[in-house]
Amino acid sequence: MSTADIIHVVLAALLVVNLVLIGVGLVGAGRMVAGVMKRIEGQVALITAETAATLAKTREALGRVETLSAELERVVRDDADPAIAAAKSVLVNVDSTTQAVHDSVQGVRRVVATTESLLSPAGLIDVSRRLAGTPRGKVTLVSIAAAAIGVTTVLQGRAKKPRG
Questions:
Q1: pTM for the complete prediction?
Q2: Which residues of 115-148 are buried (b: 16+ CB within 10 A; e: fewer)?
Q3: Exposure winner among 2, 46, 48, 60, fewest CB in 10 A?
Q4: In this structure, are 70 and 126 located in the same domain?
Q5: How many CA atoms lie within 13 A of 109 on its CB side?
């Protein structure tokens, strides 16, 4: 064998040893990857189980929310809407009534103010002077005086009668 052949054999032997070492390294790496893969698969299974449980709870909660939403919509439609409509109607009536009472109070205030001005001594004197200035006014004053005397007499007569 020549030196060249020996070098080829040695190189071939080194190549085989090198391939064997690479193969052993690959096998070790494969086992490590397999171990990591088993741990990853375990974690994925755990996450999948937890996710499934969480999704089930979420679906259940969503179902309850949908039920509550439907019930709330029914309550608003059946109970609240008519109550709100009735309240609006009542408020319109209250507003109309309040305005009518206000107008009535204003009218009563005008009547009271006019009556007070007529019944005050100065008002009575002023009215009496005006009435006394015309023939009809004089008759009116005599009629008022007679009516006042008549009313006073009737009231005094009632006061003297025993009630029973």
A1: 0.37
A2: eeeeeeeeeeeebeeebeeeeeeeeeeeeeeeee
A3: 2
A4: no
A5: 6
In this structure, the answer to whether residues 131 and 85 fall within a common structural domain is no
pLDDT tens for the chain, 164 residues long, are 789 999 999 999 999 999 999 999 999 999 999 999 999 999 999 999 999 999 999 999 999 999 999 998 888 888 878 888 888 888 888 888 899 898 998 988 888 887 777 667 777 777 777 777 888 888 887 888 888 788 778 777 776 666 65
- Domain assignment of residue 133, given as a range: 121-164
CB 111 within 8 A of CB 117: no
Same domain, 31 and 51: yes
